[in-house]
TrEMBL record:
EC number: 6.5.1.1
Top EC class of this enzyme: ligase
Molecular function via GO: ATP binding; DNA ligase (ATP) activity
Protein known as: DNA ligase (ATP)
Originating organism: Rhizobium leguminosarum bv. trifolii WSM597
Length: 348
């Protein structure tokens, strides 16, 4: 890896001429007291982006496209490759193209953080296409269309580098996944631009939004503000608590009834009646009809022709804004989130 960092940064782990050492994450075997390697973690909780309405300003922020897919971690070891979802589920066999490409990455051990996506004809990530390639929610098909957009490197050649600043992690990542590739593992490239201008261009091209990341931040699990997401159109997960019947709509679904989390409870946030096609509505109706209950999980007021279900299904919903009384405005159904994706419900 001879490519220098784009901008000057602190050395990765001290003197560049000294052997690379890093702090052990657990006690080492005394018989291997001279071993200068960190144990490879079985799993690292992902760093999550905090939703903001506008891009942050300042020279410490770098930007990327926001990808709409499944968050994955690709673990590369001499014994093989594991592909884990955000919730820690092993989906290695469901992404054969990503698996095959991971075996060709020029490294002995590594953990790559990124997003599995399926791209449309314009090169935009399409969550619905990804779900279809996997057989829908709860489907067991393998996806040969999915590619992995890598945007961070957490473990590299025997060393835990989560405590290192992003600019150095990215430098190492680009040595493994060069920019401009067309393989099943590709680099989510950084874009040096004004955040407001970049967001406007992203929205004009029909992208979901952008991600801003603090160049100097270590990799910290959770939603702590080191990464920020700014969306062109809001899109979040909401619990399905029922539906209104209609003889004129696909699957007989006139409108889904939705709820968000408020503390430890759920609260009604309105409904959505667009975004379905014949196939998605039919599959959704079949799953809802297996969850029918006699009364709604939350107070929804008086609804005609309503069928209530246990809040086990999480729908991804696009929406433009909120009404003054806390209901979704201009909502559209995108698909069901898989439980293995460990998606959070929107919190009001």
């Amino acid at each position: 890896m001879t490519k220098p960092p784009r901008k000057p940064s602190q050395p990765l782990l001290g003197d560049v001429d000294a052997p690379i050492r890093s702090r052990a994450r657990r006690r080492r075997d005394p018989a291997q007291s001279q071993l200068l390697l960190d144990p490879m973690p079985a799993r690292i909780e992902p760093c999550l982006a905090l939703l903001k309405s506008r891009p942050p300003k300042g020279p410490q922020w770098t930007f990327e496209v926001k990808w709409d897919g499944y968050r994955l971690a690709v673990h590369i070891e001499p014994s093989g490759v594991r592909i884990l979802t955000r919730g820690g589920h092993d989906w290695t066999e469901r992404f054969p193209a990503i698996l095959a490409e991971a075996k060709r990455v020029p490294v002995s051990t590594a953990i790559l953080d990124g997003e599995a996506v399926v791209l449309d004809a314009q090169g935009r990530s399409d969550f619905g296409m990804l779900q279809q390639s996997l057989g829908g929610r709860g489907g067991k098909r393998t996806s040969r269309d999915a590619i992995f957009m890598a945007f961070d490197l957490l473990y590299f050649d025997g060393h835990d580098i989560t405590g290192t600043e992003l600019v150095s992690r990215r430098h190492l990542l680009e040595g493994l996944v060069p920019p401009g590739g067309e393989e099943a593992i590709r680099l989510s490239e950084e874009i040096d631009a004004d955040g407001e201008k970049l967001l406007r261009i992203a929205c004009e091209h029909g992208l979901e939004g952008i991600i801003a990341k603090d160049r100097n931040s270590p990799y910290r699990s959770g939603r702590l503000g080191d990464w920020v997401k700014i969306k062109c159109v809001q899109s979040d997960g909401f619990a399905i608590i029922g539906y209104e019947k209609s003889t004129a709509s696909f699957g007989g679904i006139g409108r889904l009834l939705l709820a968000a989390r408020k503390g430890n409870d759920l609260v009604f946030v309105g409904g959505v009646g667009t975004g379905f096609n014949e196939r998605s509505a039919g599959e959704l109706r079949q799953q809802m009809d297996e969850l029918i209950v006699g009364k709604p999980a939350v107070d929804i007021g008086r609804k005609r022709n309503a069928v209530f279900v246990r809040p086990k299904l999480v729908a991804e919903i696009e929406y433009r804004a909120w009404t003054h009384d806390g209901k979704l405005r201009h909502a559209s159904y995108k698909g069901l989130r898989d439980p293995a994706d460990h998606s959070d419900l929107y919190e009001v």
